Amino acid sequence: MHKPINEHFCESWVNGNPASTVSISDRGLAYGDGVFETIRVNETPVLFSQHLSRLMRGLAALDIPFDRTIFEGEVSRYLQHRQHGVLKIIVTRGVGGRGYASLPNSEPNRILSWHPLPEYPATYFSNGVSVYACKTVLGQNPSLAGIKHLNRLEQVLARNEWGQGNYQEGIVCDFRGNVVEAVFSNLWVVNDGCLMTPRLDMSGVAGVMREWLLEELPKRGVKVKEVTLSSSDLLSVDEIFLSNSVFGIWPVKQYNGASWSPGVITTLCQALVQDLLFDI
């Protein structure tokens, strides 16, 4: 006799019910037709409103209808009794036939899954990480720039470049040689007291931690700009760091032969994230 499923401890839900499979006809599987979010959960989800707003922007860009209010209640129910982990949300267009054209009135599939917090060495935070100069380049498409859609093949190729070597992240550029981001985080540089991050109007993912820093830092008197940076520009800056909504802020200690120590603005950003977001 099968034991009843305890929905609060099932690792994944599909469309509001404990489950671990979707149809092989799901368009997320077939075409990457959907979006996702990866959310750190302490006692509560970190930057939850920003994550859901980006999710909705992505769904709107793909023209996938979605009810945010109903979904928020579903996520709240799923997170009962769950703390200190990672919530992954996937929303696909749903089941469709063969071919690119989507079916009219298709119902999106909502997938929630629970994962442990990654255990990164403390030295990544205190001393910084070594970053690889990826050869994979990112394509440009303003229709998809900024959103976190399910087609991540460029990131897969870039991440596989350094395997299990002595690097913790990689920096990727567009075909013009302009820096876009890191493989799974956003990039920031400091020069002459000004904090800068690459524009993401043609490619890349606009991270929610990036969004939060862009809003929060000017309140602290930090000058912040979105700019165009070449890979060679990075070698002469005063500070470099990476941001991500799961790990927070990592200083970059080494990239393409250049090296740095954590600087004043990097340390300030780390303190703000730790105090205002992670220590809740």
Number of helices: 7
SSE-based structural type: alpha+beta
Q: How much helix, percentage-wise, in residues?
A: 10-25%
Name of the CATH architecture of the largest domain: Alpha-Beta Barrel
Mean of all residue-level pLDDT scores: 93
Gyration radius, to the nearest Å?
Answer: 20 Å
Q: Please tally the β strands and state the result.
A: 14
CATH H level, superfamily name of the largest domain: D-amino Acid Aminotransferase, subunit A, domain 2
**What do we call the CATH topology of the largest domain?**
D-amino Acid Aminotransferase, Chain A, domain 2
Number of domains: 2
Low-confidence stretches: 1-9
Terminal residue distance? 42 Å
Strand content: 25-35%
- CATH class of the largest domain reads Alpha Beta
Please outline the major beta sheet.
9 strands, mixed
The H-and-E topology, N to C, reads as EEHEHHEEHEHEEEEHEEEEH
What would you call the shape?
globular
Tell me about this structure.
- The chain is an alpha+beta fold and 280 residues long.
- It has two domains: 12-116, Aminotransferase class 4, branched-chain amino acid transferase, N-terminal domain (D-amino Acid Aminotransferase, Chain A, domain 1), CATH 3.30.470; 122-278, D-amino Acid Aminotransferase, Chain A, domain 2, CATH 3.20.10.10.
- It has helices at 27-31, 48-61, 68-78, 122-126, 153-160, 208-216, 264-278; strands at 12-14, 17-18, 34-41, 85-92, 109-116, 129-138, 169-174, 179-182, 186-191, 194-198, 224-227, 239-244, 248-255, 258-259.
- The strands form two sheets. Strands 6, 7, 8, 9, 10, 11, 12, 13 and 14 form a nine-stranded mixed β-sheet that branches. A five-stranded antiparallel β-sheet has the order 2-1-5-4-3, covered by helices on one side.
- Strand 10, helix 6 and strand 11 (224-227) form a beta-alpha-beta unit.
